Amino acid sequence: MTTALHSAAADPGTFGERLARFHAVGRWSAVNDDQPWTPAPRSRPCMWRYANLRPFVWEAAQFVKGDAAALRVLTHLNPGHRDYEAACGHLYSGLQALKPHESMTCHRHAASAVRFVHEGRGGWTAVDGDRIPVSAGDVVVTPGRLWHEHGNDADDGLVIWQDLTNDPLVNTLGATFFELHPDRTHLTSTPARDSLASWGGLLLPDTRRRHPASPLHSYPWDKCRESLRSAARCGHHDPYDGVVLEYANPATGGPVTPTTGCRLQLLQPGESTLAHRHTGSVVYVVAEGQGTTTIDGTDFAWSAGDTFCVPSWARHHHTNGSETGEAVLFSADEFPLMRALGLYAEQTDEPTEI
Q1: Would the pTM of this model clear 0.90, i.e. be above it?
Q2: What is the pLDDT of residue 29?
Q3: 246 within domain boundaries
């Protein structure tokens, strides 16, 4: 079937306004904003100093109580999008505090979470029946849709850890779910498990295909730090990241969650890595030592506890300015998401095809 072309004269001056009434836009007028020629993330390089935020964590613990305590989290906001609660890209980051003899109601949600413990004794988290004691430097993985809860059994002091989640991604995709456990705890109705005993050894259960997210929920600091030392002794080294190891899903060898990866890297005394850039944002947490990361020409000096971010496609390199001490960085990244979508690209100082 054919239709006759409308005979009215074109009016470019009012075209966009008239078209907008029907919830449409001419792509030629928006392509430079909506379809940039190279990666143009809204996120900016940013630093959140632990020394600055820690007093606010303690202050919040004095008045944020009851049911609201589950959300006693100081969110890291990126200056590039303060209205969008992501530290960088589609990665959320925030500091959560647990008071002595406090426990959180069991819940589950679609988003996955990785938690890096900053300080405190007596803290614990329970994931799918696995009640895990946590201490400084430990990493805990909470896959999406699994029941989990947290607590602090100590008589004094706070347990402070960092939440690193894919909430922004889940919200953007319109796939958010949240549910409270009807019994407030799942530990009385879920069989007790020990994921470290099952999945933390050289020999693994032969049930690997069932675990797209890591069935190992706890990555203790002492074991991970020793693995980093061993890798350094063996000469494992990347010119762009130093001695770098990935927290792996032991069931698949892949990342700890389908969309978020985690790494631990060591910078030798006096080491300065080569510069590179890649698609996929990264949020770094300084686990040990001090140094500087240069991001798109700006230096960000960091020390233990600090958090900083490298947006997608931002050129960066790391420097350990100490001549005697090592520096260790923990990071959460979007690399699994980028690779799954076929969008991962990397470029070094030497021009290569991407």
Answers
A1: yes
A2: 73
A3: yes
